[in-house]
Specification:
The protein is built from ten helices and seven strands. By secondary structure, the chain is an alpha/beta fold. The chain has one domain: 3-Layer(aba) Sandwich (Rossmann fold). It is globular and about 65 Å long. The model has no long low-confidence stretch (mean pLDDT about 95).
Length: about 270
């Protein structure tokens, strides 16, 4: 039998060094894993793996430190910015970033992120908005849409009773210490690429010592939304983006050159 010669192929993609080769605990169709990959790619490209420290609080992100081959720690629910502040102030040469969900950052931790921004802490915040408490059973979160059914709002969110969804990027953008605040999404390839560029800029902002950067990422939760993954991606576009418009909410003058450099490389 004749031997089969294997063709030579160019490697076009490989797992980032900053991403651990392990089995995920996230539900099928959840885009947390995708966002993890983007962060890991950025860490590799910037060459900051040895300097980076991840702060992951309670919530869907509670095991995030299992997926990154960088130093990491777990913060009490909502307190990631406070822990990150201590780490960065005591080790200013490190690159410290938090990875937080909406139930964490926009509910129990609202005061922490607001005051970290107010102080202009030199931190990077990745804020994942899936409009629900994903880990604890799908309860209503501050970002839950009007009329959206959750386990704690079985008849839909009643804005007359509990208020309107909180728009975190718009809120944080009003605080001068936050120098880079943007909202992105991962519901299709074009927006995935834009999200990666924003995450890269956010890390570069910290590397330049310019202040707090926050990248809000609209993400899916198929399990608690009771949707198949493909429909959940479409729901981001149809339902979430009209309420949480994608865009740049604050880019300080000192940050503008970084955004031009990052976008030019995409």
């Amino acid at each position: 039998m004749a031997s089969i010669e294997l063709a030579e192929y160019d490697v076009v993609y490989k797992r980032p060094e900053a991403l651990v080769n392990t089995t995920t605990h996230y539900c099928p169709g959840c885009t947390h894993g995708l966002i993890h990959r983007l962060i890991a790619e950025v860490i590799d490209e910037l060459g900051i793996g040895e300097r980076s420290i991840l702060v992951a609080p309670v919530g869907c992100a509670v095991f995030a430190y299992n997926y990154f081959s960088v130093d990491g720690c777990e913060a009490p629910h909502g307190r990631a910015p406070a822990m990150a502040t201590g780490l960065k102030r005591s080790q200013p040469d490190k690159i410290v970033f938090t990875y937080q969900g909406d139930g964490d950052l926009a509910a129990i931790g609202t005061n922490e992120i607001i005051h970290a921004a107010g102080r202009g802490e030199n931190l990077t915040v990745v804020f994942v908005n899936n409009a629900t408490y994903g880990m604890t059973g799908g309860q209503m979160a501050p970002t839950t849409l009007a009329g959206q059914v959750t386990t704690s709002s079985p008849y839909g969110r009643d804005v007359d009773l509990v208020g309107v969804p909180m728009r975190v990027s718009e809120l944080i953008s009003t605080i001068p210490g936050a120098v880079y605040v943007v909202r992105r999404s991962v519901h299709n390839v074009a927006n995935i690429n834009k999200t990666k560029a924003a995450i890269k800029t956010a890390f570069q902002v910290q590397m330049q010592g310019l202040g707090l950067s926050l990248v809000e990422v609209l993400s899916t939760c198929p399990t608690n939304w009771h949707m198949p993954p493909a429909k959940a991606l479409q729901w981001i576009e149809d339902a979430m983006i009209p309420v949480f418009p994608l865009g740049d909410y604050r880019i300080a003058d000192a940050v503008v050159p970084l955004t031009k450099r990052t976008r030019g490389g995409q």
